[in-house]
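Run: sequence + adenosine monophosphate -> complex structure.
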Amino acid sequence: MNVVILLGAPGSGKGTLAAELARVPGIRHLSSGDLLRGAVKQGTPAGLQAKAYMDAGNLVPDALIAQMVEEVLDADPATHVLLLDGFPRTLPQADLLGDLLARKGVHLRGALLLEVPDDVLVARIAGRRVCPACGATFNLATLPPKRDGLCDACGAPLAIRKDDDPATVRHRLDVYARETFPLIDYYRRRGLLHAVDASGHDLEPKIEAALRKIHD
Ligand code: AMP
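>> structure
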C-alpha cells in the first residue's frame, strides 16, 4: 500500500477531489472527518468522545483519531493507494502517522497541498450543502443540486453541516492556521510536499500532473 496525504484548509476541495480520484480501482479515500461523523452517527464510544469537540469546530484528541485510522488501515490491506484526507492535522499526528506507517511497512509517497486564498475558502464553505441520508455533498456556487434543496442521489432534503455556520468556520480556519499549517513545512523539509493552486475550477489536469510526480 502507498499513502498520499492531502493537505489544505477546510473548503480547499480535498474531499471532493479525493472522492473523484477514489473512483479509480485500487485508490481509496479515507476522510478523518467522515470517519468521525460516522462514529458520532452510530454512537460508538469514539463517536461519543468526539462529538463535543467537533460541534465546536475543535480538533479531537490526537490519539483518538490515530487509533481510528489505524483500524481502517488494518481492515483494508488490499488498497493500493490510500488518500488520507484530514489526517494528519497536527505535528504530533504527523509523527504518529510516521510511526504507524513504519510499523506496517507502508510507504508514504507524498503530501499534496491544495492552496486556496481565505476569502475563496469562506465563500465555498458558505455554499456547501450535504445530504444527511447518503453523505453526498453539493455546493450552491460550484456544484448545485439539480432540484433546489434536494439530494441528486437519493432525493433527501439537503442540510448545512453543523460546523459550517460562519462563526464556527472562522474558528476552524484559525485552528487550521495554528495546528495544521506547520505540516506544510514538516513535509516540505522531508522532500514530500507538492503544492497545487486550487483556487480555480479546472483542477483535474493540475492534480493529475502532481499525482504523477508523486508516483514517479
Ligand atoms: P473535516 O470534515 O475534515 O473538516 O473534519 C470535521 C471535524 O472533525 C474537524 O473540525 C475536527 O473536529 C474533526 N477532525 C477531523 N479530522 C481530525 C483530525 N485529524 N484530528 C482531530 N480532529 C479531526
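>> summary
The chain has a mean pLDDT of 90. Residues 10, 32-33, 36, 53-54, 57-60, 65, 86-87, 89, 93, 163, 172 surround adenosine monophosphate (CB under 6 Å).
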